[in-house]
Amino acid sequence: MAASRRKTEQVGGIWHAPPDGAMPRALATWRKPDGCTKQWPNSDPRATLACDSYNRSDRLVRICSSTGVNLIQGWYLRSMAQVDTDLPAALSQIAEVVEAALESLLPPSEGAESRLADAMRYATLGGGKRLRAFLVMQSSAIFAVSETCAARVAAAIEMLHAYSLVHDDLPAMDDDDLRRGKPSTHIAFDEATAILAGDALQARAFEVLAEPDTHSDPQARCELVAALGAAAGARGMAGGQMIDMLAEGRTLDGAAVTRLQALKTGRLIQFSAEAGAILGRAPPFQRHLLAAYGRDVGAAFQIADDLLDAEGSTEVTGKTAGKDAAAGKATMVAVLGIERARAQADLLARQAAGHLETFGDRAKLLRALAAYVVTRRN
Amino acid sequence: MAASRRKTEQVGGIWHAPPDGAMPRALATWRKPDGCTKQWPNSDPRATLACDSYNRSDRLVRICSSTGVNLIQGWYLRSMAQVDTDLPAALSQIAEVVEAALESLLPPSEGAESRLADAMRYATLGGGKRLRAFLVMQSSAIFAVSETCAARVAAAIEMLHAYSLVHDDLPAMDDDDLRRGKPSTHIAFDEATAILAGDALQARAFEVLAEPDTHSDPQARCELVAALGAAAGARGMAGGQMIDMLAEGRTLDGAAVTRLQALKTGRLIQFSAEAGAILGRAPPFQRHLLAAYGRDVGAAFQIADDLLDAEGSTEVTGKTAGKDAAAGKATMVAVLGIERARAQADLLARQAAGHLETFGDRAKLLRALAAYVVTRRN
Description:
Two copies of one chain form a homodimer. By secondary structure, chain A is mainly alpha-helical. Chain A has two domains: 2-80, no CATH class; 82-373, Farnesyl Diphosphate Synthase (Orthogonal Bundle), CATH 1.10.600. Helix content of chain A is 65%, strand content 6%. The first copy, chain A, contains 19 helices and five strands. Chain A has helices at 2-5, 46-56, 58-67, 69-81, 87-105, 114-124, 131-142, 147-168, 185-188, 191-210, 218-232, 237-247, 254-279, 284-311, 314-317, 323-326, 332-336, 338-355, 364-373; strands spanning 9-16, 25-31, 37-40, 178-179, 182-183. In chain A, the strands form two sheets. A three-stranded antiparallel sheet of chain A has the order 1-2-3, with helices on one face. In chain A, a hairpin with an 8-residue loop joins β1 and β2 (25-31). Residues 1-5, 15-25 and 54-84 of chain A have low confidence and may be disordered. Chains A and B meet through α6, α8, α10, α11 and α12 of A and α6, α8, α10, α11 and α12 of B.
């Protein structure tokens, strides 16, 4: 650590929220080898990443301390330039792997209760971006986790995600007749079947995680179950949905919307990114890096989703367009407006990619995904 | 084992369903020391237990083989005579322990999502017989499991049970405004909150099971999660509810009703009885005995519940009375009529108690519970 004292060292990172309601800007402070300090002014966009890194992760601070400001700058620029032409192929390939895993892990359509299995399959198979599955598979690949084990976890998360969509679409909730370009589960079947299918999908997700085939070490399986339970429950996805319901027609400030979305969609996406580290028995600092990536990607994804709702057409997105504004939903688009919301999503996506530089090429598809989530059109 | 050859040994157990639709009766076959066989005629009620024990459990067959018919008869008679005056006190004490565990394990009413925690607490705390919790605590006591660990599992099962009641009462499901003598959760709150509260209760149940405080051995925690997932899912409780929904207004035969109820309520009760064996790392045959007990107690309980619905008043049961018949629900009461359904419940309760004789006094409260579930009035 003595060596680091001789280098330029980051010693502070503060977010400033201008009184005029403009975008918050970061002010990063650095100590130079001669002991003097310098700052990146909050008009310099690089300060955002530096501040964020400083505040979020002990590991990143240590990296800053030992290598100085130039590497931070380097990360930033490399993330900006990240273009990976393999991403669409990888997304499509992982979607196929996970589809096969889901096919084998979902209950077969048998017995007097076959209608339930049919509804679970309808809600889960053959659709969706499989973003969460991709995060599981790619974070697992960093630690050379067996694809079979990772695919089970990916399938479990997609089941849990599918259940949340089925319940979210119910008349008493968002009342949406369309999902992934086809009738919602309660339209294709009925409300009672949709409620039960969601319930059974959640139970199956946890069951799959706990089964021996998911990991040879039961400690890893327990960590997956506990982390998914926390991400899905009252302090996670369900809590976020509750806030979302209560916020309809009311005005939330940016901080409240950020927390709402961190719970509603962020926690599950964060868990998906962390899952590889849990499966790979990675040290805590690596799990934290993936968690930080997941948080930022999740936030970027949600803003991008809200932008699509505000701007997209029903044909392109496969969902009923313009619903959020019609329902008075609390979104960052409502708080910031379209242009600034887009800038915020871009910023978060770059920040997300920055967390994973330490993994080098093993994380290049995850970094590419961060850029993809804010540019996708459906 | 040579010694057993010299004793009367059970060699067969067959159920006969009379063509006139009367109650199925058992025909048990015995080989005497001289090599000849004898049968208990199907008019002898002892044959029922003997047949059931023979068919269900390898362990019981081995016990039969080494000790002969007299012990089987002895079990039967002892179970019949079982009266334990400590049961009400034990039920009440365990209800208090589990209430305290639930209080600490449910999310606090905090933050913008506090309404969700309020609904989860409303649905779970301060009511219910805590039958499932009692099964967990008492099956755990057989194996000297720490009460703290057992209470966490009991609380998790009560959360899962509470979620199933919340969703079951929804307008799209059973549409019941009354539960445990107070307004159902969707009446006290609203439908969306009730759906989310049920969802979050299920997630929390699995999370609690997977947390380190539940058991020092992660293998035990994984077994609990996987078994609860199976009991709650499409081949368990949710599957049973699906069949129940589909059966409304249709006539099911006895076998179909038995399966429906084994899934809908039986699997979770069976899991509750097995949980102690999982926590106690008991050998498989002991887990199987508790599972067999749980299956029979669950079936007896469900028939007793249906009898209460048919005969009880809303004031006494805390639920809307006569709903099953009004909704054309498939129950054993509808199939057999009140008198024969009551006889069947009594038979199942005695059978249940018989499975646990091998545990001696350590299981006396579980045996007493079997008698209680068919005599309770609410």
